[in-house]
Design goal:
Number of helices: 9
Number of strands: 28
Mean pLDDT: 85
Low-confidence stretches: 578-590
Largest sheet: 28 strands, mixed
Helix content: 10-25%
Structural class: alpha+beta
Shape: elongated
Length: 617
C-alpha cells in the first residue's frame, strides 16, 4: 500500500529533473530577445554616458541556440565636449550569436550585417576619447569569433587633436572581401587611406590576409600580413614598410612617443600576440644614418614595457633633429655663438607610461658639419617611471674613451627633469684632438660629476652643482710657449721654433655651484716654467674669466712683471696681456732686474700626481 505513493513521488521528481531543464532550454531557444530592447538601451547609455535610442529590436529567426537579432534605428549622441551631431547612427543591424556565453556575461557575435552605419570618433588634445567608458582609460585591440561580416553604405569619420590626424573612410564588407578607403590628414600632410582583406566568411578556418596603406607626399606606410582569425588584431603577423619626411609623421600613426628627425625609411617584421608586440628585422635609414635592431613592446596595466636593441654602423646625431630643429639650433648658435655643452632636450614629461631597456651601439659617428672627436657610442638605456639611466655608457673618442653613467629623473610629476652626470675620460692624447696641430702633446684625463635641473642638458648644467676635473700629463710643448707661461719675454722671443719643453702637467679643477665653476686649482707646470690661475667658468654662457700669473724655473732672460687674463668662452678663449705689462716702463724695469739679477722668485716642480688625483676624484 505504501510502496505506490513512494514510486509516484520518485516518478514525479524524475519528471521534474528532466522536464524543467527541457522547458528552460526550450524557453531559451525560443526567447524573444526583443523584450530586452529597454535593458540593452539602458546598458549602452551607461556604457557611453549618454542616452541611447533604439527604434526596434526583434528576434528574426524561429528557434535555436544561435539567435539572430535585428536592431533598427540606433542613435548615440555625441559627447558634449566632442562637438555637435551624433557619435553613432545605425539604420539596421542583424547579429547572430551563441546564447551559452551570455550565461557567463560574455557576448560573442558570430555573424554581423550592418546597413547605414555612421560613426564619428573623436579624441581631444588631452587624450580623452568619445568611445571609451567615462572615467576609464582608452583601450585597443580586438579578438573575436566572427564567421561572417556584411557592411554596406557605411562611413567612419575620425578626428584626433592629440596626434594631429583625421580621416573619413568608407567601409564595406561582403562575400568578395573587406574594403575600406578614404582620405585624411596626418600632422598637416594629406594622405590616402586603404584597407583590403579577404572575406570574413572563410570557407575553412585559417589565417586571414589583409593589406593596409597610408599614402601621401611626405608619408607612406604599407602593412601586409595575416591575422589568426578575421579582424583579430590581437593575433597577427605583418611586414611594415614606411617612409616619411620626419619620424613624427610615423609616430602620429603608431603612437610610440617618437621625435622629429631627418627623412626616414624603415622596414620591419611585426608580430602581435596581445598584449605583446614583437618587432624583428628592423632596418632602415634616418637621414644619412643607418639603423638596425629589434624590440618587444609589452602593454600591461596601462603601461608600455620595451625591451630591445638598436645598432648603427654609421650615425650622424644631427639626423635626430628635423629641419626645423636644425634651423633653430643654427639660429641659436648665430645669436649666442658656439657652445661645448649641447642643447639637447631631456624632458620626460610626455613619456609617462613607458618603461623598458634598450641597448644602443653606434660603430662610427660622423657629422655633416665636418670632423668630430667622437668616433663611437655604446650604452644601455633603462627607463622606469620617468627615470632614465644610461649605464654603462661608453663614448669612444679620438685616441681615448669616456665611460660612466647619465641619469635623467622626472619622477613625481616634476616640472623639469634632474640631470646627473658622472663621466670619466681616459686614454686621449692632446695631439689626437682636433685643432692642436700636434704642437702640444700629452695624456688627457677628465672627470665630470654634476647634478642640475633643466629641460635641456645645457639648462641643467647651467644650474648644476658638482665638480669638473681636467688633467694633461707627460707631454711636450714649444719652448717659446713654455717661456711665455713663465712671463720670460726674452726666451719666448729668442727660442728656436723647433725647440720644445716638457709639459709636466695641466691641472684644472672646477668646484661648480649653481652653474658657476671656480678654479681650485689651475696649474700649468712645464720643465721651464709654471703658471697659476684663479677665476671662474660660468654656464650656460661658458664664459671664462681667469687671471694668470707665472714664473720661470730658472734664470730668465727678460721676465715681465704682472698678470695676463684669459676670457672669452670655452669654444673661443681669448688671452689678453694688459697694456701696462707690455709698456715701455715695464720692459725697462724688466731689463734693469735682469742686469741686477733681482728678477723675483722662481718656481719649483708641482706635485702633478697629487694635484691630478684630487682634480679627478
Amino acid at each position: 500500500m505504501t510502496s505506490r505513493p513512494r514510486v509516484s513521488r520518485r516518478i514525479l521528481l524524475l519528471s521534474l529533473v528532466v522536464v524543467v531543464p527541457l522547458l528552460l532550454l526550450a524557453g531559451l531557444a525560443a526567447f524573444p530577445f526583443g523584450l530586452l530592447k529597454g535593458i540593452v538601451a539602458d546598458r549602452l547609455s551607461k556604457r557611453f554616458g549618454r542616452p541611447v535610442a533604439i527604434t526596434s529590436m526583434a528576434r528574426v529567426d524561429g528557434f535555436g541556440f544561435t539567435p539572430t537579432i535585428a536592431v533598427r534605428g540606433v542613435t548615440i549622441p555625441q559627447a558634449r565636449w566632442a562637438g555637435s551631431g551624433d557619435f553613432l547612427r545605425l539604420r539596421e543591424a542583424q547579429v547572430s550569436f551563441p546564447v551559452w556565453p551570455l550565461l557567463t556575461g560574455t557576448f560573442k557575435p558570430r555573424d554581423i550585417r550592418l546597413d547605414g552605419l555612421q560613426l564619428a570618433l573623436v579624441r581631444d588634445a588631452d587624450g580623452r576619447t568619445n568611445w571609451s567608458r567615462p572615467g576609464e582609460p582608452e583601450s585597443g585591440g580586438s579578438s573575436n569569433d566572427l564567421k561572417g561580416l556584411s557592411v554596406r553604405d557605411s562611413m567612419i569619420r575620425y578626428r584626433d587633436a592629440k596626434r594631429r590626424r583625421e580621416a573619413t573612410i568608407a567601409f564595406a564588407s561582403d562575400a568578395k572581401g573587406l574594403r575600406a578607403s578614404g582620405t585624411g590628414v596626418v600632422r598637416g600632410t594629406p594622405v590616402r587611406i586603404a584597407l583590403t582583406g579577404a572575406s570574413v566568411a572563410q570557407p575553412t578556418p585559417g589565417p586571414w590576409p589583409f593589406t593596409a596603406a597610408i599614402d601621401g607626399t611626405a608619408l607612406h606606410m604599407r602593412a601586409r600580413g595575416t591575422m589568426d582569425r578575421p579582424l583579430d588584431t590581437d593575433a597577427m603577423e605583418l611586414k611594415v614598410v614606411a617612409r616619411a619626411a620626419d619620424l613624427r609623421l610615423i609616430d602620429a600613426v603608431i603612437e610610440a612617443g617618437l621625435f622629429g628627425t631627418q627623412t626616414v625609411a624603415i622596414v620591419a617584421n611585426v608580430r602581435h600576440a596581445a598584449p605583446r608586440w614583437i618587432v624583428t628585422g628592423l632596418k632602415g635609414t634616418i637621414g644619412r644614418s643607418d639603423i638596425a635592431g629589434h624590440v618587444t613592446v609589452d602593454k600591461r596595466d596601462g603601461r608600455t614595457q620595451l625591451d630591445g636593441a638598436v645598432a648603427s654602423d654609421r650615425f650622424d646625431f644631427d639626423d635626430l633633429s628635423s629641419d626645423e630643429g636644425l634651423a633653430k639650433g643654427a639660429a641659436l648658435e648665430r645669436a649666442i655663438g658656439p657652445r661645448v655643452v649641447p642643447n639637447t632636450r631631456i624632458d620626460l614629461s610626455n613619456i609617462d607610461t613607458t618603461d623598458g631597456r634598450i641597448a644602443v651601439r653606434v660603430a662610427r659617428v660622423f657629422s655633416r658639419g665636418g670632423g668630430t672627436s667622437v668616433t663611437g657610442v655604446q650604452g644601455v638605456l633603462v627607463l622606469d617611471h620617468q627615470r632614465l639611466r644610461v649605464e654603462p655608457l661608453t663614448i669612444r673618442l679620438a685616441g681615448g674613451t669616456a665611460r660612466g653613467a647619465v641619469t635623467v629623473d622626472q619622477r613625481g610629476g616634476a616640472a623639469q627633469p634632474t640631470l646627473t652626470l658622472d663621466l670619466h675620460l681616459t686614454g686621449t692624447r692632446v695631439d689626437a684632438l682636433a685643432g692642436t696641430g700636434g704642437a702640444f702633446t700629452g695624456r688627457i684625463a677628465a672627470r665630470a660629476r654634476l647634478t642640475g635641473r633643466g629641460e635641456t642638458i645645457r639648462a641643467a648644467v647651467s644650474r648644476s652643482t658638482g665638480r669638473i676635473g681636467f688633467v694633461v700629463r707627460d707631454g711636450a710643448l714649444p719652448a717659446r710657449y713654455a717661456a711665455a707661461l713663465g712671463f720670460d719675454a726674452g726666451r719666448a722671443l729668442l727660442a728656436d721654433s723647433h725647440d720644445t719643453a716638457g709639459l709636466r702637467c695641466v691641472i684644472l679643477a672646477l668646484a661648480v655651484r649653481n652653474g658657476r665653476g671656480s678654479a681650485s686649482p689651475l696649474v700649468v707646470d712645464t720643465s721651464a716654467s709654471q703658471l697659476h690661475g684663479t677665476g671662474t667658468v660660468s654656464f650656460p654662457a661658458e664664459r671664462i674669466d681667469f687671471r694668470l700669473t707665472g714664473a720661470p724655473k730658472g734664470k730668465s732672460l727678460l721676465r715681465l712683471p704682472g698678470s695676463a687674463y684669459m676670457t672669452g668662452t670655452l669654444s673661443d678663449p681669448v688671452l689678453t696681456v694688459p697694456p701696462e705689462v707690455k709698456s715701455a716702463g715695464n720692459i725697462f724695469k724688466a731689463i734693469g732686474r735682469a742686469i741686477t739679477g733681482r728678477q723675483g722668485p722662481t718656481a719649483s716642480d708641482a706635485d702633478c700626481g697629487g694635484l691630478a688625483a684630487r682634480a679627478l676624484r
